[in-house]
Specification:
The protein is α/β, with parallel strands linked by helices. Strands 1-10-9-8-7-6-5-2-3-4 form a 10-stranded mixed beta sheet, with helices on both faces. β9 and β10 form a beta hairpin. Bound molecules: adenosine-5-diphosphoribose and magnesium ion.
C-alpha cells in the first residue's frame, strides 16, 4: 500500500482538479469524440453514452452506429453528428483505423453486440493512435486482442463490471471480489491500461498501479443503462485533458454524485433511471466547480 497509494476520491479532490472551460476555447479545442456503439436491439445504450458525453464537456461528438439505429438515437440527441458509414462492413481495417484517427478520443462497445463486426471494430480501434475507452461488448471482444492491447502506445481505458472483468481474466466473479485491488493492479500493470472496475465502490487503477476508490452513487444505479451513461461521462472528461487517473476518478465521482443528488431531491432509488442521472449531472458539475 505504501508503494501503490490507494485513496478515496473526495469532493475536494474533484473541486481541486476539475478543469473548467478556457475563455478562448472553441469546439475543436474542447475535444472531438466518437462513440461506436448501439444496435437494433440496444439503441438506448449509445443514446445514454452520448448524453453523458455531451453533458461532460465534449466539444464535438460523433456517434457511429448502424444506419437503422441513427434515427432512434438522433431523436434524443440533437447535438451530435452521425456516422453510419463507419459501420458498413465494406470498411477495411486500415480505413477504419484512419477514420478513427480523425478524433481526439474514442469510446467503443456499449450495445454493439457480440459479433464478428464488433471484433473488427475493436481491432481497428486498438490499432489507432488515440486514447480509447472500451466498455461492455467491446470488452467481450477484447479477450481476442490482448496482445494488441499490450502493444498500444496511446492510453487505453477499460470499464468492466465484475462479470466483464471475470470474463476478461478467465476467473470467477467471486475470486475477483475477494481481492479486487490486487487483481486490478496486476491487470493494469501487465497490459499497461487504465482500469475502472465498477461496483458499489468503483476502483480506478492506472498502469503504474495507483488507485482511487469512489464512494458516491447508490442502489438506484443498479439498473441497465447506468454503465452506459458513465462510459459517456468518462469520454467527456478524458477529452478535457489532464492526468487520466484524475479524469476517470472525477467521472466516477460525478456519475455517482448526480445519482445521489437526484435521489436526495427528486427521485427514489426505485424509480431513478440512467437518463435521470444524466439530467442531474449539471447540478453535480456546478457543485464541484
Ligand atoms: N451502488 C453504487 N453504484 C452502483 C450500484 C450500487 N448499488 N449498482 C450499480 N452501480 C453503478 C456501477 O458502479 C456502474 O457505474 O452503476 C453502473 C453499472 O454499470 P454496468 O454494470 O455496466 O451496467 P449497465 O451496462 O448499465 O447495464 C447492465 O451489462 O452485463 C451487462 O448485459 C448486461 O445489459 C446489461 C448491462
Ligand atoms: Mg455496462
Amino acid at each position: 500500500l505504501k508503494q501503490y497509494p490507494t485513496r478515496v476520491w473526495r469532493m475536494e479532490d474533484v473541486t481541486e482538479t476539475l478543469k473548467g472551460r478556457d475563455r478562448l476555447s472553441h469546439k475543436g479545442s474542447n475535444g472531438r469524440g466518437i462513440i461506436i456503439g448501439g444496435s437494433v436491439d440496444m439503441p438506448g445504450s449509445v443514446t445514454l453514452a452520448a448524453k453523458g458525453a455531451l453533458r461532460s464537456g465534449v466539444g464535438l461528438l460523433t456517434v457511429a452506429t448502424y444506419e437503422s439505429v441513427v434515427p432512434i438515437v438522433a431523436q434524443h440527441i440533437t447535438e451530435a453528428t452521425y456516422s453510419p458509414s463507419i459501420m458498413s462492413s465494406n470498411y477495411t481495417h486500415e480505413q477504419l483505423t484512419s477514420a478513427f484517427s480523425q478524433y481526439d478520443a474514442l469510446l467503443i462497445g456499449m450495445g454493439l453486440g457480440r459479433t464478428q463486426h464488433t471484433d473488427q471494430l475493436i481491432s481497428a480501434a486498438l490499432a489507432s493512435n488515440l486514447p480509447i475507452v472500451i466498455d461492455a461488448d467491446g470488452l467481450f471482444s477484447l479477450k481476442k486482442y490482448l496482445i494488441e492491447l499490450k502493444e498500444r502506445s496511446a492510453p487505453t481505458v477499460l470499464t468492466p463490471h465484475p462479470g466483464e472483468m471475470a470474463q476478461l481474466l478467465n476467473q470467477t466473479i467471486e475470486s475477483i471480489k475477494k481481492r479486487p485491488f490486487e487483481i486490478c493492479r496486476e491487470f493494469a500493470k501487465t497490459y499497461g491500461v487504465y482500469l475502472v472496475l465498477k461496483g458499489v465502490y468503483t476502483i480506478v487503477t492506472d498502469p503504474d498501479g495507483n488507485q482511487t476508490i469512489n464512494t458516491t452513487g447508490n442502489a438506484g444505479l443498479a439498473k441497465g443503462g447506468s454503465g452506459d451513461a458513465l462510459a459517456g461521462i468518462i469520454l467527456g472528461r478524458v477529452l478535457q485533458g489532464g492526468a487520466l487517473l484524475t479524469s476517470l476518478a472525477n467521472a466516477c465521482f460525478l456519475h455517482g454524485r448526480a445519482a445521489d443528488l437526484s435521489v436526495r431531491d427528486h427521485h427514489s432509488k426505485t424509480d431513478l433511471l440512467a437518463s435521470d442521472v444524466v439530467d442531474y449531472l449539471p447540478i453535480a458539475f456546478r457543485e464541484c466547480s
